[in-house]
Amino acid sequence: MLIKEHPELFPPEIAFGYKMKEIRVSKKLNLKIRRIVIAGVSYTIRPSFAMPYMTGFVKDVDEKHTRLLGEKTYIATTTGSKLSFRVFHERALSLHGNFKNFFQANFFEKPPTSSADRVNGKKIKSKGLYTPMKFGKYLFHITLTRDAVLPAYKGSTFRGLLGHALKRTVCALKNQTCATCILRQNCTYALVFETAHALPAPENAKISAPPHPMVLEPPLTEKREFAAGDTLACGMVLFGDLNRNLPYFIYAFDQMGRIGLGKSLNGTRAGFTLESVTFGDETVYSKEDGRVTLPDILPALDLTPDQDENPEHVTLKLQTPFRISTDTGQAPNLPFDLLMRSLIRRCTALFNTYGDGEPPLNYPELVKKACRVNLTDNSLAWFDWQRYSSRQEAKMYMGGLLGQVTYQGDLGPFLPFLRMAQTVHAGKNTAFGLGKIDLETMNK
Question: Where is the CRISPR-associated protein Cas6 C-terminal domain (predicted)?
């Protein structure tokens, strides 16, 4: 009852349920305190007459508020006559040193095993050259509750709605821009959608701005009209520590279904129900039990080459538009050295920002070898795609290459990059799902 009457006082994940934990006794005030668990995070419920951190009683304090950025902010908040919920939310984490333990927990009661040590329960055999970067690949399964009209390419639709729902979920200082918000380095929305403002460029890194820590993989069907009851699946790849914020993305997807998707029909957009979220064969959320179970072990990406694998031919399929800055304009041509320059930049930027640092690569030598690889079969075509940016109030032209291309030559040194690109995508605007690559064939 209390949760329904005052949802603003609770973390958004409480909508998916909670469970009781232990009862503790405060040594400072000799009061019983109940602890509960929400999405793997421990929270404390305390009496409303007790101050935060059990520093005293409310009746003994004259001023019960402070000021944050010029706005009155209450220290103790009453949620009824007997209980008050002490909210640990990411938007307040950077304001007080006592939240340090929450940061260390990182949304986990038991932090997942480091992907640098184990993947799928097996120890990684590191050759000492390339350190891994952990990632999580999730699939959000939805069922439409109304008829829907969606664009042929759905990346912009899902990403735009996700940004709107996520910001509405986590943003604490509504009147602040992300660029000036003091919470931006700990805000899920800013980390994903305003990455350049939330994260400084890694020290000594050869990148101007950090890459986005998320890649969306929208449904690839070009079908545009859907009926109520139809199902869709939208993929999401999260890099590094952002996987610990998965409950926020699940809650945001749930809210997306309430906001509505696609073109407005008869004044209403198509709603949907989030049925489940899967991580490989594991279900991390289902509508039936309403609970989030975070993965115990995250897989890892690295650039360790396999010395025994050196195919003569590689065929790549560009499943979503591949965009790259080039002087060739819209020419349907992708020389191997141009592809590899793009992949090397992206992979090293990701390792720099979300992994254990830049791998020790011999860049000039790699580029020289890439120039000696030949393009033997090219069935690429330019795909024109545009989206409307509500933030910039303008149409954005985001066309790119689609189709299949085959290369021949000494390809062994480049296979780790090509395999990694299947997960992290390649080229520009990967956050929209662009640059999805499949390694189709490898012929000896």
Answer: 316-437
